[in-house]
């Protein structure tokens, strides 16, 4: 079994799938193909033929099917093993993980993305054809509210969706990746969130992503 993942090494959304691949021990079954975000390669016709939405990452499975959207890709990868490890095994756990993963996207990660694309230079004028700085700043503030929400969640439980590490945790990790890129400071007062993040940075899967990331950075 060999799969191809189209992504960009430093992308916050690609980091979600790369961490999942490492967490599930699937690295030997995956090859990566770079799609340069800064050159707008994800918006060109050849890539749009793979993913109509023009977003990264995209997984190509053995039969040639392309799967986009991080949640769908993670769900697929998690189902390859004997038992799911990132998406839940019981109906309750599955529901909680999907709920918290969606909240992590809408309230935190995606809000940072909108801030990046609208209130900063983003990917540059060749890619950012329309910007609304006011909307971007509103989404920055939304992301900070989302961070406070997850701080409250993590005051009473060890992981974002409960007692076990899941794809919801990976999504919040990706929000921290994006926050670093845009230099958005997560307030130090959010002690539970930062303590959780410190624990996440110690996970082998996250450290593996960090090593891959650093290996691609220009000297």
Quick summary:
The chain has helices at residues 12-23, 45-48, 70-78, 91-119, 133-153, 167-181, 191-201, 204-216, and strands spanning 3-7, 30-34, 58-60, 66-68. With 219 residues, it is an alpha+beta fold. Helix 1 packs parallel to helix 3 and helix 5 (133-153) crosses helix 7 (191-201).
Give the topology, please:
Layout: E1 3-7, H1 12-23, E2 30-34, H2 45-48, E3 58-60, E4 66-68, H3 70-78, H4 91-119, H5 133-153, H6 167-181, H7 191-201, H8 204-216
Parallel strand pairs: 1-2
Antiparallel strand pairs: 1-3, 3-4
Overview of the molecule:
- With 219 residues, this protein is an alpha+beta fold.
- It folds into 2 domains: 3-85, Glutaredoxin (3-Layer(aba) Sandwich); 91-209, Glutathione S-transferase Yfyf (Class Pi), Chain A, domain 2.
- The chain is 52% helix and 7% strand.
- It has 8 helices and 4 strands, in the order βαβαββαααααα.
- It has helices at residues 12-23, 45-48, 70-78, 91-119, 133-153, 167-181, 191-201, 204-216, and strands spanning 3-7, 30-34, 58-60, 66-68.
- It has a 4-stranded mixed sheet with strand order 2-1-3-4, covered by helices on one side.
- Helix 1 (12-23) links the parallel strand 1 (3-7) and strand 2 (30-34).
- Helix 1 packs parallel to helix 3 (70-78).
- The longest helix is centred in the middle third of the chain and has 29 residues, at 91-119.
- It is globular, with a radius of gyration of 17 Å.
- The chain starts with a strand and ends with a helix.
Structural class: alpha+beta
Beta-strand share of residues:
5-15%
How many whole angstroms does the radius of gyration measure?
Answer: 17 Å
Q: What's the CATH architecture name of the largest domain?
A: Up-down Bundle
